[in-house]
Amino acid sequence: MTHSGQCLCGAIAYEVSGEPNVVALCHCRDCQRAAGAPMVAWAMFPEEALKLTRGEPKTINSSGAAMRSFCPDCGSGLFYRNAEFLPGIVDVQTATLDDAEALPATVQIQVAERLDWMTHVHELPAFERFPDQA
Fold it and tell me: Model-level pTM?
């Protein structure tokens, strides 16, 4: 199976083929800071499964052997590589897939750094769009 995706502005597009090794919600502090979010959903694929179809992401060393790739125009996070801990693997941020529902998470990782309030997020009031601002 092939999945396509892109950044927010569309400058970077990609395809990833095959089945992911794992799809995880990562709660590590580096992911939180990189995404500006409490967690990031990643699908782990062999490096050769990823094909860029448009544009060239910028890649930075975010910590140690960790390399994060993102769109240099809109800032969307796209890929993660760590040759030390995950040789030959690329993680793809699943929210950037054209069908973001296609690869649901099956595990949570780095929960030692999970924000405390995330353990109860399912208990918060939920609105289809926005709450009334009266």
Answer: 0.90
The DSSP annotation for 42-111 comes to EEEEEGGGEEEEE---EEEEEETTEEEEE-TTT--EEEEEETTTSTTEEEEEGGGBSSTTSS---EEE-G
Q: Find the helix or strand (DSSP H, E) in which 23 lies.
A: strand 22-26
Structure tokens given for 27: 């709660």
Secondary structure (3-state) at 41? strand
Contacting residues for 129 by C-beta, under 8 A, at least 6 apart: none
Amino acid at 121: V
Which residues neighbour 49 within 8 Å (Cβ) at sequence distance 6 or greater?
A: 16, 17, 18, 90
Contact indicator for 102, 93 with CB cutoff of 8 Å: no
Per-residue confidence in pLDDT tens, the chain, 134 aa: 999 999 999 999 999 999 999 999 999 999 999 999 999 999 999 999 999 999 999 999 988 899 999 999 999 999 999 999 999 999 999 999 999 999 999 999 999 999 999 999 999 989 988 888 75
